[in-house]
Amino acid sequence: MTNKTRICSIDFFRYFCSIIVIGIHTSVLNDISSVAGEVFLDVFSRIAVPFFFAVSGYFYIQKLEHNKKVFKNYFIRLIVTYSAWSIVYFILDFITWGHINLKGFVTNCLYSYFIIGSHYHLWFLHSLILCICLVTVFYKLHIQKILVPISLVTFTIGCLGSAYYNVIGKSIPFLNSIFDSSFYVQIKHFPLFSLSFFVCGYVIYRMHKKFEKATNKKINKIVILSVFSAIIWLSEIILIKNKNLGRDTTITIGLYFLIISIIFILLKYPMPKANKASKACLTIANFVYFSHPFFIETINLFFEKLYIERIPETLMFLIITLITTIIGVLIFKADNRHLNRLI
Question: Could you tell me the pTM of the whole model?
């Protein structure tokens, strides 16, 4: 596989993960079965955002390794996208509550834009911007080799504050005060979660170079290891939930290896002939991720104004998936440079 070969399988999986995120924010399956809803939230949904960070890290660091000057263009692109969607959600917030308390609204906008992410899902872009800034500085200083050790430390702390908080994390001096603080969510987003999985992309890049000329026998081993990592991950989650070891399953040991395994398989099976479809999936996936809360909140607001009972969670999931996918397809077909800035 050459450097110019498009890895279409990754774009298809991006779209799949963006649909998973809709499921998270609509609480899909909860109306059908609380158990099914919990399984979706605590298990399958945990793959999506780590995958986004790891893939972003893989491609960005790959370009840095080849001495390509990518920071400026990528940084500007992220800032423009982040700012554009921030404006969209600030307008929505102003309509729903901001007009009642203008001073509080402005303060909240400034704080969320610069500190935590301007909407509950845009923390991803906020943290991604911080990741590329930090990683680029490390490369400029020629100290990129310590990125992996640092990220493993942040990942370990993240596990202690999440999956293993009850059994270990809350008993560790200093760390427990961070875990229990009001600003822990911000710290968890960056660097504990985002940097850990972004640099995971670097780990994948280094490992993939060694396996790039792998024989079919080695490929089979990768598939076997992927299945094994999935079993370990699922077993870990079951243990965490049954024994009440932590507060949530957002950062688990098995998840790290599962993300590596998933991306390895996607790299080994790039589906190069599906080039046009994969480009469409990339556009649609980005639009789905950035826009879905807008449609969720708009629909809920509409029903609230009419004093109508809210749509059941799974039906809402299907409606939002359909709306965002159709609009994403239209944006891809339009190929408008102004619209493209939103994604």
Answer: 0.95
